[in-house]
Write a structure and sequence with these properties.
- The complex is a heterodimer of chains A (about 750) and B (about 500).
- Chain A is α+β, with helices and mostly antiparallel strands.
- In chain A, helix 3 runs antiparallel to helix 6.
- In chain A, about 40% of the residues lie in helices and about 10% in strands.
- The longest helix of chain A has 16 residues.
- Chain B has about 500 residues and is α+β, with helices and mostly antiparallel strands.
- In chain B, the strands form seven sheets. Chain B has a four-stranded antiparallel sheet with strand order 1-2-3-4, with no helix packed on it. Chain B has a four-stranded antiparallel sheet with strand order 5-6-7-8, with no helix packed on it. A four-stranded antiparallel sheet of chain B has the order 9-10-11-12, with no helix packed on it.
- In chain B, helix 1 runs parallel beside helix 5 and helix 2 packs across helix 5.
- The chains are: A alpha+beta (about 750), B alpha+beta (about 500).
- At the A-B interface, helix 2, helix 4 and helix 5 of A face helix 1 of B.
């Protein structure tokens, strides 16, 4: 029913009361349908107010209204006669507080002539009845537009919100929804759903109603004058989709990067080290038209690529080895797990099979590597189904469902039903002692009861996310989980993998952060993410196929140097992102340049930093960096599943460590590399060039070369001078970044 | 719906007369704290700057507190409203700075009243002498010798009932300890009824709002009524049962009084509510004797022991404290309840205290040791609808002893239960059965009687709950009042 109509009805109620009282039943507001949306709209049940876990000022509501039955009891029957006064409705504290007629910490929320007030008053006057669980629920919320394009700042458009109910009825809820914008410097949205363009860019605005968050994309165009689409050639689907987006936003992409930059970038990305001097020479000498594609194929075929991805998976899967037997994460188990992952990567195991084998694994943690998903994804002495389900979903789906443990997800579609149904896949997971003290046997106890719903204690049989019906009962539910999770039809899974692979290579996900996929955090380029995901599925989940496509795209190969139109763009891939090297890649790069290896406690000589995982002398809960270099340079401590555990921000202590710490200082001359180089080099200029190529994979500019030459002065054969130059190159920002 | 209209008119009339009164006061004489400003502070400020909470260290609940000021310095500068923090705060242009926070500014006439008060020299009262007396004199019935016939209402003046849309829930109910008489609370009124016939024997006006607690004195001569309006005012009135006269008015709270009791010697009343502090007032001069602050949540139940030595108080998180009634010192904590304590009742021998709560528990306490003598979990077991999971509300809403030591309780299962002296269940009275059978055990309150016939069907939307229960002095009749404003009574089986 339209609101004007409701209002008119109300007015008539007051004017001709006796006539209406006999026929008012149909118009009577219901608690769930009409009253709770007002609590939501007015902010009563927000987290900072009565929706907080312990309520506010002695009155609690469920956060955003997840518990309608409980809310009814608290409002109406907890303190009879106080909050609701059915004898003198105007004197209900609920109304006096909301209108500021009596002191209220939350202040005045609406006036007595508002529709909200009239609805509440009418409901109380009707005796504050409860409507049953059978009341039609909101099944879908629809915004009047999916995309708004503004040509000028200051322009505005009104959005309307429609709620479609489970009984196929629908109503306008524009005045009951709450609104927010993801970037108010691009567009704002006010309390009535009115969107106003602020400045050039793209963002999303959202309306929330019931348990739904729905969004519309907003594009505010920069001035058309002076913008010319350069029409760069597209190599593959990636370029087409990104260019399409950029053209729409009036952003011109940067130029293609040069060969030196490309070689260093792709080698660091695929082999986790800078190119060698020989690789540099060979690549620069190659005049073939496909030399970049050829290089990519070479790198993909190398074991270094597989080993790098094994390391990335090991970090995400939180491999840590302890020597404390009772915790099931002994070094021996960690090693079995790591070696198994590396084998999968080296043999190009399809990623969906790789994940499915872990999800469905049972048996010994020492001999069956993949079963350690159940010992290491969450490091705890006992298996914890809730913590595991949350981390599992964040890792394999990019979705953070743990919000729904206590209340329906406020900014996504996940409900408590989804959460507890998902937890039930793991409530049977148990560990029992094996034949030796370090061994634990992981199994699923199929007699274990499912998780219980937190609101009413109802058992919630195992159910995949978003489904209504549980998986068939009987047996190990994880088999059904693995099949659903890794099925080509499960877009949550393939999109998550594609997005994470893209982010690894471009420095930023199409959805960012990569592990916070939700309705209110949509992809910045939806068609691109769809295409990447479809490509991964079409390639039978082959990692190398997708990486090959990405690296061959012009987008991957764009220069980091911005132009006038894309300087402000940070999210549409119009130019390359400057990316600080991961801690382990940085350390391996220092080792590669100086030729002096690095020992890691508990690992054999020659182990690369990327292959290192923490091996601890106790249990494995909490933060573990292992080597101190990794804590300084922000390698993941593996304490949580969050992608943010891997830190890429430069810090002062990193700068100081590189400048005066032992990592660089002890390596400058230790291998005698500079001395050897000096013996085989004819001039100081050649020596300077060799150091540049060795460290930064490029020739020095003329200015750099002459400045360095001046530094060398007369000491043309003094290796210490060249070691100083090497020191300064290793301490340059350029070395620490992939650009 | 007719009545909604009327209520609106009444509400408007009330607010009109209130502001008219304020304006009048301002014109006739210069403003004073006691007569003018205190009322404004109470309505708008004391929630945050009062007895229970002093934001910025400021307490506006007393004249002394106003003069003392807060952490920001002096709140008022006599003669200079422009330099007074309070005046600046209420007149600030920026809504972020303005007091009261997140609200519309105070009405202009109130602001000008405060201005006049400050500019007129910040006077406490019109003659700036000692605080005015409560206006009534009350002499406690000294001694405990109780003889002669018990007081019965005798030809009380007619009380005009406030029209309400439907009967107000019966939030309070008490039976005389010496006479076949019960008092039940309505909206802005109290009615005396014959417990057996439920016929009205007289009524008392309670224009202060809704009585939340009713208690007869041990002699049965005095009725204490405590209540008010939520987040507006709270007060205790002592009535003469025989004449209906008001004997004393005690307390001036910012929220309704939820729990209260009159001491056996009638010298003190103890009250509590959302402020978390139990206040003990003298009935003789209205002065505050003790402020007991140990509770961490709303005070929901208060009872003096029959000898007047102890005071038991309960709160909304289930804590019960026993105090020395004279000194205000802590005697014992009684911890057993996991939910709000809903009632406290003393056995006439003073050795046993009964408590009940929203956790479904009834506890008979040995107050000398502080241990439960008997504890009845799930005393009012709710029926679980088929297919329902989780907790079904099983709160016990009220409990009280009769003179013989038998206990009556009512709960969210819609039953009233009688418990023998040994704690065994003796009789269960089912409110649902009564409502359905339409037996002659039910009568609506006078508020409801004034309504037309169509209105009575309006209670269909109301969730019926027995809110209060009591037994008559002779233990023959059980009386209960429900959330739809109906009174029920039953003959109790002899043991």
């Amino acid at each position: 029913m339209n609101h004007k109509h409701t209002f008119r009805m109300l007015v008539s109620l007051f004017l001709w009361p006796l006539v209406i009282s006999s026929s008012s039943a149909a118009a009577e507001p219901g608690f769930r349908r009409d009253v709770m949306p007002i609590f939501f709209r007015a902010g009563c049940n927000a987290g900072t107010c009565h929706g907080s876990a312990r309520g506010k000022d002695g009155f609690m509501l469920s956060l955003f209204g997840y518990d309608a039955k409980g809310d009814y009891e608290r409002v109406v029957t907890e303190m009879v006669g106080r909050r609701i006064n059915t004898a003198v409705p105007e004197q209900s504290l609920l109304l006096l507080k909301a209108t500021g007629a009596v002191p209220h910490t939350g202040g005045k929320l609406f006036t007595t002539d508002s529709e909200y007030y009239q609805t509440l008053l009418q409901w109380i006057a009707a005796g504050a009845p409860d409507d049953t669980d059978d009341v039609p629920t909101t099944a879908e919320v629809v915004l009047s537009a999916e995309q708004l394009v503004f040509d000028t700042s200051g322009a505005s458009t009104q959005l309307t919100v429609t709620a479609n109910a489970s009984d196929a009825s629908s109503r306008d809820v524009t005045k009951l929804a709450r609104y927010f914008s993801n970037n108010e410097s691009v567009a704002t949205i006010d309390a009535n759903g009115n969107v106003t363009a602020v400045g050039p860019g793209d963002t999303n605005v959202f309306a929330r109603f019931s348990r739904f968050t729905v969004g519309a994309e907003v594009i505010v165009l920069p001035p058309a004058e002076g913008f010319n689409w350069p029409d760069p050639p597209a190599v593959n689907f990636i370029d087409e989709l990104v260019f399409d987006r950029l053209q729409k936003l009036r952003i011109a992409p940067s130029e293609l990067c040069d060969d030196e930059t490309f070689l260093r970038r792709v080698t660091l990305d695929l082999a986790a080290r800078p190119p060698t001097v020989d690789e540099y020479a060979a690549f620069m000498a190659d005049a073939g038209p496909d030399k970049r594609a050829t290089k990519i194929d070479q790198l993909l075929a190398d074991d270094a690529f597989a080993d790098y991805w094994a390391a990335l998976w090991a970090e995400q899967l939180r491999i840590i080895g302890g020597n404390y037997a009772p915790v099931a994460t002994h070094v021996k188990a960690a090693d079995a797990y790591y070696q198994w992952i590396r084998r999968q990567m080296r043999t190009s195991r399809p990623l969906n099979e790789f994940v499915a084998e872990m999800v469905d694994a049972s048996g010994s943690n020492l001999t069956n590597g993949p079963v350690n998903l159940y010992t290491m994804l969450v490091h705890k002495p006992q298996f914890d189904p809730k913590a595991f389900a949350a981390d599992f979903s964040q890792l394999f789906l990019g979705v953070q469902i743990q919000c729904a443990e206590c209340h329906n997800h406020p900014f996504d579609r996940w409900t408590q039903d989804d959460y507890y149904g998902f937890v039930s896949f793991f409530t049977g997971m148990k560990r029992k002692p094996g034949v030796e003290p370090r061994e634990r046997r992981i199994y699923c106890d199929i007699t274990a009861p499912p998780a219980r719903h937190v609101v009413d204690g109802r058992p919630m049989p195992a159910k995949v996310l978003g489904s209504i019906d549980p998986v068939p009962a009987g047996g190990d539910p994880r088999t059904a989980l693995a099949a659903w999770l890794t099925s080509p039809e499960n877009e949550l899974f393939s999109r998550n993998l594609a997005n994470r692979i893209w982010a690894q290579l471009l420095g930023r996900g199409v959805i960012e952060p990569v592990d916070d996929v939700r309705a209110s955090n949509p992809p910045v380029n939806g068609p691109l993410l769809d295409a990447l995901s479809q490509r991964l599925v079409a390639a039978n989940f082959d990692l190398r196929s997708l990486v090959r496509d990405i690296c061959n795209s012009r987008i991957y190969q764009l220069s980091a140097k911005p132009n006038a139109s894309n300087a402000r763009d940070t999210r549409q891939f119009s130019h390359a992102h400057l990316r600080r090297l991961r801690a382990d890649v940085l350390l391996d790069s220092v080792v590669a340049v100086t030729g002096v290896g690095r020992r890691f406690a508990g690992f054999p000589e020659g182990t690369r930093a990327i292959e290192y995982y923490p091996r601890e002398s106790g249990d494995t809960e909490g933060q573990h960096f292992g080597d101190p270099f990794f804590s300084t340079f922000g390698r993941s401590s593996r304490a949580t599943i969050c992608a943010c555990e891997t830190k890429k921000e430069p810090t002062l202590s990193q700068t100081l460590h590189m400048a005066v710490g032992d990592t660089v200082r002890d390596r400058l001359g230790a291998a005698g590399e500079v001395k050897k180089l000096l013996e085989n080099t004819i001039s100081p200029e050649a020596m300077i060039e060799a150091l540049y190529i060795r460290t930064l994979s490029r020739r020095p500019t003329i200015e750099e070369s002459s400045a360095m030459r001046e530094l060398v002065g007369d000491a043309v054969k003094d290796h210490a001078v060249y070691e100083d130059i090497l020191w300064s190159l290793l301490n340059s920002t350029e070395f620490a970044f992939n650009h | 719906m007719l009545h909604l209209n009327r209520i609106a008119n009444i509400a408007t009339a009330i607010s009109l007369s209130l502001s008219a009164g304020l304006v009048q006061a301002q014109e006739e004489k210069s403003a004073t704290y006691d007569d003018d400003v205190a009322l404004i502070f109470k309505r708008h400020c004391l929630q945050c700057h009062g007895e229970s909470k002093q934001e910025a260290g400021l307490n506006l609940a007393s004249y002394a507190g106003v003069i003392k000021g807060g952490s920001g310095g002096d709140a008022v500068v006599a003669g200079r409203s422009s330099a007074s923090l309070i005046f600046k705060a209420i007149t600030a242009k920026d809504p972020e700075e303005r007091m009261p926070p997140k609200s519309d500014p105070l009405p202009e006439e109130q602001i000008s009243l405060i201005k006049a008060w400050i500019d007129g020299g910040v006077r406490q009262s019109i003659d700036s002498k000692a605080k005015a007396s409560p206006g009534m004199t009350f002499k406690p019935a000294l001694g405990t010798a109780i003889d002669g016939p018990a007081a019965m209402p005798d030809n009380l003046p007619v009380v005009n009932s406030t029209k309400t849309l439907r009967p107000f829930p019966i939030l309070a109910l008490a039976t005389s300890p010496r006479a076949p008489l019960a008092a039940i609370a309505g909206y802005e009124r109290i009615d005396f009824i014959d417990p057996a016939t439920r016929d009205i024997a007289g009524s008392l006006a309670f224009p202060e709002g809704e009585p939340h607690v009713l208690r007869f004195s041990q002699s049965g001569d005095v009725l204490m009524a405590a209540g008010g309006r939520p987040v507006q005012n709270g007060v205790v009135i002592l009535f003469d049962v025989k004449t209906g006269q008001r004997l004393a008015k005690i307390g001036d709270e910012t929220d309704v009084v939820i729990a209260a009791d009159l001491a056996p010697d009638q010298r003190q009343v103890a009250i509590g509510g959302s402020g978390r502090i139990v206040k003990v007032y003298s009935t003789e001069d209205g002065s505050l004797k003790h402020s007991l602050s140990k509770h961490t949540d709303w005070i929901t139940a208060i009872a003096f022991s029959p000898d007047g030595k102890f005071l038991a108080t309960g709160d909304r998180v289930g804590n019960i404290h026993l105090w020395d009634a004279e000194s205000g010192g802590v005697v014992l904590p009684l911890s057993e309840h996991k939910g709000s304590v809903t009632a406290l009742s003393w056995h006439s021998d003073g050795q046993v205290l009964a408590s009940c709560g929203e956790d479904g528990l009834i506890v008979w306490w040995d107050v000398t040791k502080g241990w439960p003598l008997n504890s009845k979990a799930d005393a009012h077991p709710p029926e679980r609808p088929p297919g329902a999971y989780g907790k079904i509300a099983n709160g016990v809403l009220d409990a009280s002893f009769n003179a013989r030591g038998e206990l009556i309780s009512c709960g969210r299962d819609n039953t009233v239960r009688i418990w023998s002296v040994d704690g065994s269940l003796r009789q269960t009275l089912d409110l649902n059965a009564v409502s359905q059978a339409g037996k002659n055990t039910t009568k609506q309150t006078p508020n409801a009687r004034n309504l037309s016939d169509e209105q009575s069907s309006d209670s269909s939307g109301i969730r019926i709950l027995p809110l209060r229960c009591a037994m008559t002095f002779d233990g023959t009749t059980a009386v209960t009042g429900d959330s739809a404003g109906q009174v029920h009574s039953w003959k109790i089986n002899s043991p």
